[in-house]
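Researcher: Please generate the 3D structure of the following complex. Treat every line as part of one assembly.
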Amino acid sequence: MLTADWFDYLEEATATIASNQEARQVRQELLSHLESLAWDLQQEGWSEAQAPAEALRRLGDAQLLAQAFRESRSNDQRFAWGWWAAAWTVLALSAIGVVGSLEFLIPATVAVLFLAIFYFGPQPSWTQWVTVIRHTFLTHWRLFVAGGVVGAIWGLKPWWPGSVHLIPQRVSLGALGLGFAVTLWALIAEWRHARHGTGRWSPGLSALGLGMTASIVGCGLGHAWYALWPHPMNWRLNWYPVSWGHLMGLVMDVYTAIVFVGSSIMAFLIKLWPQAPAVPERVEE
Amino acid sequence: MVDTILPSIPRLLVLRSLADQSRHGYAIARWVENASNGVLTLKEGTLYPLLHLMEREGLLESAWVKTEGARPAKWYRLTPKGLDRLRTDYQEWAERAPKIDQILAHRGGMPDAYGRLV
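Model: Done. Output below.
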């Protein structure tokens, strides 16, 4: 009797629970409730096709349920921190992206970011992360399509006059660093959520991956264009000695290639990934 | 404190539903509905966060039980602390609810459509 709607509901209803284990238990408990209710509805005369939807309707608004879970833990500081952490991390990502606009800081900022997310302090559950990602990127998918277009234009910056060279250079590097970090963050969160949550990949992940890939491909095209058609205002060599410039350029190209290929493969895999909802594991007390 | 003059009704109903036997969440909700002849419904949005809160407070304890042919369900039962709380809350309810009713019924009860107490 499992339906995809139920899993979307269960994920949304448990999005405010900070503990992965507790969120999983609540999902299983609600699933058990839904099954019992649907079975009773069938005994009352509802058809096998209609009973699951009616059971879901009677269970109520998933967001209200999520809010009730949050409020029931309102005195729990760890929980409060965990809930807000996801939102704050998005802001932190933006700040790190700005700092990461310096090319040589990108690997360091990415490392710090992942340390901050995965090792420091209390953690939001993977469902929380995924909910934030989905709400952020699915709600504003047009923004990300536009971001991809803008990224492509940034990538072609050697066309531009030297007077505006430095600013788009920094913005493009910032976008690369932020895009790289956010893409990895989203991929890891989705993957972990799929393993520890309801076992489903987000359709929005492919949109995010493609949006980021579009941006990075644009920059990659710019690099390729520049390699084919050198420009006197070489933005790498302006910053560093020649050897360092070449090294950084190589790092950037490899980095771009990894993200491009990785995002493409992920988008492809997600498209092929079985979307049938997995049954939550039995929770042993 | 007027706003805490009565025990929480959902909490009291959950405690009472578990007084005679352990139940899972769905059974608690149905018990309340049936025991009130369908007048009272413990919405699931209230029930599950409340159950988890009461469990954290030590009023309930739970165990996952698998019955044949069915998905495992989380069954709840009262702890000794929960039983004490049921007694206390029920006693408060029995003492105070009639007083509330008395206040509400004062001078004829509810006003009519013109705001007059009749």
